[in-house]
């Protein structure tokens, strides 16, 4: 009877010890990554879903980039207007603002792939804030074309910041694999 009791206490000790180690390593991980902002633009909802999945996993603050301007309801007209805006380097005025950008160490930036690049709304965001010294992690959603020039263009438009090449590139609202991607980057809530 005594032996069983001692064995049970020993097992409990090992289990609790393991939990403690896990809790400590989680705290260390989020500490090491610093304060996180997840900023995104989404026209039809896919990038928003990915942003929410990242937020669910790493915490931090979620921020939707909203700008002036509207698009026609008809899809082809809408895509033509977007193409023209991109060609002309249009930068719509931001309608939402990040409070105290200086507090963030890591900024996830989400954009749909539009005509092979990031959207004008995301370009406005990147050019309106001082992101120098921050770690910028892109997440891109697309309709079959993959990343194309999105990540390299994000890098070029984000002055002084370090844009990770290991961004998320997913078809539509796909989120399967997000956890593994974030863990590979060293994130754990
Ligand atoms: C104006 C426009 C241009 C697009 N251009 C591309 C493209 O060049 N390559 C691609 O793979 N998908 C393209 N797509 C598809 C979107 O990238 C895809 O549907 C994305 O997930 C939409 O994100 P959202 O729902 O957050 O707006 C385009 C969509 C729109 C509306």
Q: CATH-wise, what's the superfamily of the largest domain?
A: Flavodoxin domain
What is the CATH fold-level name of the largest domain? Rossmann fold
- Helix-residue proportion: 40-55%
Instruction: Kindly estimate the percentage of residues that lie in beta strands according to DSSP.
Output: 15-25%
List the helices and strands in order. Answer: HEHEHEHEHEEH
* Bound small molecules, deduplicated: flavin mononucleotide
When the domains are counted, the total is: 2
Low-confidence stretches: 5-31
CATH architecture of the largest domain: 3-Layer(aba) Sandwich
Quickly name the level 1 CATH class of the largest domain: Alpha Beta
Number of helices: 6
* SS-derived structural category: alpha/beta
Identify the notable features of this structure and list them briefly.
single chain; 189 residues; alpha/beta; Rossmann fold; six-stranded parallel sheet; 6 helices; 16% strand
Provide a descriptive summary of the structure in words.
Residues 5-31 have low confidence and may be disordered. The chain is an alpha/beta fold and 189 residues long. It is built from six helices and six strands. Strands 1, 2, 3, 4, 5 and 6 form a six-stranded parallel sheet that branches. Strand 3 (106-112), helix 4 and strand 4 (135-142) form a beta-alpha-beta unit. The site of flavin mononucleotide (FMN) has 20 residues, from helix 2, helix 3 and strand 4. Flavin mononucleotide binds at residues 42-48, 79, 82, 112-116, 141-145, 172.
């Amino acid at each position: 009877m005594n032996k069983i009791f001692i064995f049970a206490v020993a097992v409990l000790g090992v289990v609790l010890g393991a939990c403690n180690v896990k809790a400590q390593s989680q705290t260390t991980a989020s500490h090491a990554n610093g304060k996180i902002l997840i900023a995104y633009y989404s026209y039809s909802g896919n990038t928003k879903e990915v942003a929410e999945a990242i937020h669910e996993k790493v915490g931090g603050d979620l921020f939707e980039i909203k700008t002036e301007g509207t698009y026609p309801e008809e899809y082809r007209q809408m895509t033509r207007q977007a193409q023209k805006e991109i060609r002309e380097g249009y930068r719509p005025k931001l309608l939402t603002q990040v409070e105290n950008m200086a507090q963030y160490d890591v900024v996830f930036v989400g954009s749909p792939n539009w005509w092979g690049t990031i959207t004008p709304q995301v370009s406005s965001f990147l050019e309106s804030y001082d992101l120098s010294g921050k770690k910028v992690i892109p997440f891109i959603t697309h309709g079959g074309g993959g990343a194309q020039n999105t990540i390299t263009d994000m890098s070029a438009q984000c002055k002084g910041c370090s844009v990770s090449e290991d961004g998320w590139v997913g078809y539509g609202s796909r989120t399967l694999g997000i956890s593994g991607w974030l863990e590979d980057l060293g994130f754990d809530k």
